[in-house]
Specification:
The chain is an alpha/beta fold and 226 residues long. It folds into 2 domains: 118 residues, Rossmann fold, CATH 3.40.50.2300; 96 residues, Winged helix-like DNA-binding domain superfamily/Winged helix DNA-binding domain (Arc Repressor Mutant, subunit A, Orthogonal Bundle), CATH 1.10.10.10. It has 8 helices and 12 strands. It has a 5-stranded parallel β-sheet with strand order 2-1-3-4-5, with helices on both faces. Helix 6 crosses helix 8. The longest helix has 17 residues. The radius of gyration is 29 Å and the shape is rod-shaped.
Length: 226
Amino acid sequence: MLSIAVVEDNDDLRAAILNALRGEGHHVVGFDCAEALAEQGRTLRIDLVVVDLNLPGEDGISLARRLRATEPEIGIIMMTARTRTDDKRIGYESGADIYLAKPVSLEELAAAILALSRRLRPAPAAPTGLVVDTGRLTLGGPSGVTHLSASEAALLAAFARAQDHRLETWQIIEVLEQVDRALNRNALNVTVSRLSTKLRQSGTAPRPIRAIRNWGYQLCEPVRLT
């Protein structure tokens, strides 16, 4: 959803645009001139302005230049009957993102706003690395979600909190004994091996856990706890 200002002096057209864009789920306010936007819109957070060029008082070209200078990230869609190449060039040079020639269908305007919204509200970036949910006992990675045992989740959480993701053997034993009091050295090795397999299944490099001879282990992947 975007916050949109429509600056159009034709009352019927402005009302039709407002109704259509509200139906698309946007928050929309209308103004009949540039001066009204300047006076009433200063307290609003506006993502995008739909502006007619032939306005009473300050025209749409001047308004676009002023908006682009003061709010560089704002979206600007111009609607006008001026269709010559020079007119379009001036419109874009004045700050327009999209220049639509009237008559503009409401469907075309909605499509232009959708296209521009990808710049104004880009999709959030996918989280990188591994995500461990210690409550649900799951491991999320580039290849999907894998279920963990309580011991595996506890060990991953310990690696995530450790400096350089390194744990000495005695530290690993302490972590695992909190889950399984019957732990022995073989069980430790089995847990590390199974955890390495699940890390690879989640999309990590071939050796997600590296053994440090006569010392312990290091997790070689970034990990985030939830």
